[in-house]
Amino acid sequence: ISPIEKIVPDQNRVELGNGKVLNYDYLIIATGTQIHPEELDGLKNGGWRQNIFDFYTIDGAIALRNYLKYWEGGKMVLNIVEMPIKCPVAPLEFVFLADWWFTQQGVRNKVEIEYVTPLPGAFTKPIAARFLGEFLDKKNIKLTTDFNVSRVDSTKNKIISYDGREVSYDLLVTIPTNMGSDVIARSGLGDEMNYVPTDPKTLQSKSYENIFVIGDAADLPTSKAGSVAHFESEVLLENFLRVTEGRKPAPKFDGHANCFIESGFGKGILIDFNYEVEPLPGKFPLPGIGPFSLLQETKMNHWGKMTFRWLYWNVLLKGGEMLVESQMNMAGKIRQEYMLKGERL
């Protein structure tokens, strides 16, 4: 096994680190995204893995777990450095579960939690941002928005934004800059963040007709999430076969994302959306029946996530199919009652 050194798309070849060359007729890129804490000034200076942690890596998650086991309280700040990130709901899920964990440990009254984001709200879409913002407030988690962090001062335990605002912390949980694979940069296939420019409907590379892109590696305007990659796979397979048969790829991918958000205390939230329609309240997957509730916190949503975890490991990874269609279905969603003034859904 050897890592990829470079993709040479003009010659239809992949060069490996051990000197071997793989020639191809068609290529599917699934190189993902990784965190780059070095991109933020001061993030890795002094406090890294002492009172500054990530949880998007195994080492970071384990180090944070060990720290929290004996933490006696203080101010915990979760900061998203910049968008996009993989699994955009994961930071919210973290603070919700942190609220639950500290409550279970009997120290919630000793912990201040602040959620600091570059977004104008708690989420990327207005209706969900309003609901999740109110949910943060309900859990006594402070929301700080439009905070574009410029540097970390680990000597004073502060993060500083480009407009001069400061947020102090005792414990900083960071979601560092996410970027595509370095091999994409070395191959000249990516944008400034190393994501591959991809047709949002067909999943075909915008530059090479014999290259397709799936998952976090693409520059698509949808969530970098596991459900998205799963829904993409169904469209990509069909389009790959069409292209190999000399036909045009079909513009069928609609940006569908479906995410369970653990909110603690044995409950969860569910959101379902695509390129055109933001997360809306309602019932899923059966209109009026559910059993899952959209943009609501319920115990059934928690069990939905637990069930999906089992299905993922025991069915999907073995090639089984998921009952949810790759294209989003509007059945069961409530639109008019939740329209924001002046906004068209």
Which key phrases capture this entry?
alpha/beta, single chain, FAD/NAD(P)-binding domain, 345 residues, disordered C terminus, 23% helix, three-stranded antiparallel beta sheet, globular
Sheet with most strands: strand arrangement: 6-13-7-8-9
The computed structural class is alpha/beta
The shape, in one word, is globular
Regions with pLDDT < 50 over 5+ consecutive residues?
338-345
Number of helices: 6
| Radius of gyration, taken over Cα atoms and rounded to an integer in Å | 21 Å
Going by CATH, the homologous superfamily of the largest domain would be: FAD/NAD(P)-binding domain
Major sheet details: 5 strands, parallel
Strand content: 25-35%
Average pLDDT for all residues? 94
**Could you give the distance between the termini?**
48 Å
CATH class of the largest domain: Alpha Beta
Q: How would you describe the oligomerization state of the chains in this entry?
A: single chain
**Second rung of CATH, namely the architecture of the largest domain:** 3-Layer(bba) Sandwich
User: Secondary-structure element sequence?
Assistant: EEEEEEHEHEHEEEEEEHEHEEEEEH
Task: Assign the CATH topology of the largest domain.
Answer: FAD/NAD(P)-binding domain
